[in-house]
């Protein structure tokens, strides 16, 4: 099992690193070369800054035992059947039961922005957001560790 991070604008990289280091799980962060990310633990893969370069790298390298951390629903839809689990930065598990809804919601919001100039500003991330993600992610990691054959 490895954990992939879509590191272009990811707010939970340090939390993922902390938990994965604790349980000795490899982490691969994929970012474009404009993102500054340094770690002694995480394997950092740097790709071109084309719009979907990081997504395509992840989609081509992730495997059935891996976990992906991303807020990108397009990328999630590409890998939801290729990997063990997709988790967003809020701690929501993305799977076949909700990916169509998430993609449709994204499309509707894009249409609203284009047609009506309706723009909503994302709320600033709080410590509660971080704690929620940390709890969901660590509980999932522990369930995988406890269910895996020795």
Structural commentary:
The chain has 150 residues and is an alpha/beta fold. The protein is 43% helix and 15% strand. It has a six-stranded mixed beta sheet, with helices on both faces.
At CATH level 2, the architecture is: 3-Layer(aba) Sandwich
What is the 3D shape?
A: globular
Please work out how many helical segments DSSP would assign: 5
Q: What is the CATH top level name?
A: Alpha Beta
User: Major sheet: order of its strands?
Assistant: 3-2-1-4-5-6
By secondary-structure content and strand pairing, the structural class works out as: alpha/beta
Helical proportion, percent range: 40-55%
- The low-confidence parts are none
* Gap from first CA to last CA: 14 Å
Query: Would you count the extended β strands for me?
Result: 6
CATH fold-level name: Rossmann fold
- Give the tally of structural domains: 1
Largest sheet: 6 strands, mixed
Radius of gyration of CA atoms, rounded to a whole number:
16 Å
Average predicted local confidence, pLDDT: 89
> Which percent range describes the beta-strand content?
15-25%
The SSE string, one letter per element, is: EHEEHEHEEHH
């Amino acid at each position: 099992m490895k954990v992939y991070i879509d590191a272009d604008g990811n707010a939970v990289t340090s939390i993922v690193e902390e938990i994965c280091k604790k349980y000795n799980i490899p982490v691969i962060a994929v970012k474009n070369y404009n993102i500054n990310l340094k770690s002694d633990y995480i394997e950092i893969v740097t790709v071109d800054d084309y719009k979907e370069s990081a997504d395509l790298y992840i989609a081509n390298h992730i495997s059935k035992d891996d976990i992906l951390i991303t807020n990108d629903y397009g990328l999630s839809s590409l890998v939801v059947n290729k990997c063990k689990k997709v988790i967003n930065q809020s701690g929501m598990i993305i799977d076949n039961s909700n990916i169509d809804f998430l993609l449709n919601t994204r499309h509707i919001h894009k249409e609203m922005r284009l047609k009506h100039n309706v723009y909503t500003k994302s709320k600033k991330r709080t410590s509660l957001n971080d704690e929620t993600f940390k709890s969901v992610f660590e509980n999932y990691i522990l369930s995988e560790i406890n269910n895996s054959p020795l």
